[in-house]
Amino acid sequence: MYNFVQRLSGVTSFAMTTLMALVVVISLTTPLIPSAPTQTLTLLNVHTTTGRKMDVHDVDSKNAEYARLTFDLDADLTSMFNWNTKLLYAFVTVDYLTDDFSTNTVVIWDRLVKSKKQAKLKLRKHHNKYLLRNFARTFEGVSGANMTLHVNPVPYLGIMYDTPLDSIGVVIPRAVKPVENS
Amino acid sequence: MEFMAQANKRFGVRTLLVQGLTLLNVLTSAFMIWKGLSLFTNSESPVVVVLSGSMEPAYHRGDILFLHNGYSPIDVGEVVVYKVKDKPIPIVHRVLKVHTETETGRQYLLTKGDNNPIDDRGLYSRGQLWIDRSEIIGRVKGFVPYAGMGTIWMNDYPQLKTALLASLCVLSLFSNE
């Protein structure tokens, strides 16, 4: 009644349908798995400097102000690992307001946490990994700065989402020998 | 012509036409779904295959990414697919800096690949320091591993593509119902 090709096509189409349904169910349920990450972020010092060429593509970079942060970070992200977590992208942002810009958000530090063993973060007197610089050349008019730890789980399969943890206030000072804002 | 006449005698014109119609139906409905998805996600290509290893270990070559562009502003830490003016190949990287102008709502974005030591300014157009919101094709929302390996193989070996298409056509003509 049925030949080999028809049976094969039936089996593969059933397998594909089941797989698709499984993908959808896994994608939708993974973000619902509860987790309780703990963290404390402590800012020790902010020091603003100027006068070095930091970026070869940017002609302005020599005259710009750069903030160098010193911070402590303790976080336990172990509970964020479940059976569908490939890795966690943990990152610290600094966001602030200026006169012309409603959002200024800069990632200053990040780490890929690949397993439960690496999930306890402990940083002491750590400096920013990426440069913190305003869109304009100086930090003039910068207000309401905050520092936040975010965690982005990357699943083996499914939906991406962002988890911002508590944030702390930051004051970004001007450089000791400020450059003119022209 | 000999072949056509023989085929006509064996299957009849009507059967052949119906087969052709079924084939066209499959092709057009696939195209419709693609364009509908494109409209819904506001993205010119809502499903992409990762072609490089610059986002390892998060994404490998051959993984499929589902994009949703939407209209809302981009946030830091999101993985986006962007295409700058002079470069034809879209790039999947993470957003490192965001500055949004209050008056115009214009966004200045800087990206970086997880596996790259430095940011992407070297990959942008000459003299370009920031990516614009309009250059973003979509943000990565969903992820299925390995499912795009077929595309990678077909890119690497173009003969595979022709062979696949030919065998599909032959199969569709000689299957009954």
Automatic annotation (TrEMBL), chain A:
Asked whether the keyword Endoplasmic reticulum is assigned, the reply is: yes
Q: Where in the cell is it found?
A: Endoplasmic reticulum membrane
How does the UniProt record describe the way this protein sits in the membrane? Single-pass type II membrane protein
The superkingdom of the source organism is Eukaryota
> Disulfide bond: is it a keyword of this entry?
no
| Predominant subcellular localization, coarse grouping | endoplasmic reticulum
Q: What is this protein called?
A: Signal peptidase subunit 3
Organism of provenance: Coemansia interrupta
TrEMBL record, chain B:
> Which EC number(s) does the record attach to this protein?
3.4.21.89
- Alphabetized PROSITE patterns for the sequence: SPASE_I_3
Carries keyword Thylakoid?
A: no
Query: Which InterPro entries does this one have?
Result: LexA/Signal_pep-like_sf (IPR036286), Pept_S26A_signal_pept_1_CS (IPR019758), Peptidase_S24_S26A/B/C (IPR015927), Peptidase_S26 (IPR019533), Peptidase_S26B (IPR001733)
Lineage top rank: taxon: Eukaryota
Where do the Peptidase S24/S26A/S26B/S26C domain residues begin and end?
A: 41-139
| Cellular localization per UniProt | Endoplasmic reticulum membrane
- GO CC terms in record: signal peptidase complex
The protein's UniProt keywords, in alphabetical order, are:
Endoplasmic reticulum, Hydrolase, Membrane, Protease, Signal-anchor, Transmembrane, Transmembrane helix
What Pfam families would the database entry show? Peptidase_S24
Supply one GO molecular-function term. Answer: serine-type endopeptidase activity
Report how it sits in the membrane: Single-pass type II membrane protein
A biological process from GO: signal peptide processing
Q: Which reaction does it catalyse?
A: Cleavage of hydrophobic, N-terminal signal or leader sequences from secreted and periplasmic proteins
Q: Can you tell me where the transmembrane regions are?
A: 12-34
Function, as annotated, reads: Catalytic component of the signal peptidase complex (SPC) which catalyzes the cleavage of N-terminal signal sequences from nascent proteins as they are translocated into the lumen of the endoplasmic reticulum. Specifically cleaves N-terminal signal peptides that contain a hydrophobic alpha-helix (h-region) shorter than 18-20 amino acids.
Q: Which family does it belong to?
A: Belongs to the peptidase S26B family.
Among PANTHER family, the record links this protein to:
SIGNAL PEPTIDASE COMPLEX CATALYTIC SUBUNIT SEC11
Assembly description = Component of the signal peptidase complex (SPC) composed of a catalytic subunit SEC11 and three accessory subunits SPC1, SPC2 and SPC3. The complex induces a local thinning of the ER membrane which is used to measure the length of the signal peptide (SP) h-region of protein substrates. This ensures the selectivity of the complex towards h-regions shorter than 18-20 amino acids. SPC associates with the translocon complex.
Put simply, this protein is called Signal peptidase complex catalytic subunit SEC11
Organism of provenance: Coemansia interrupta
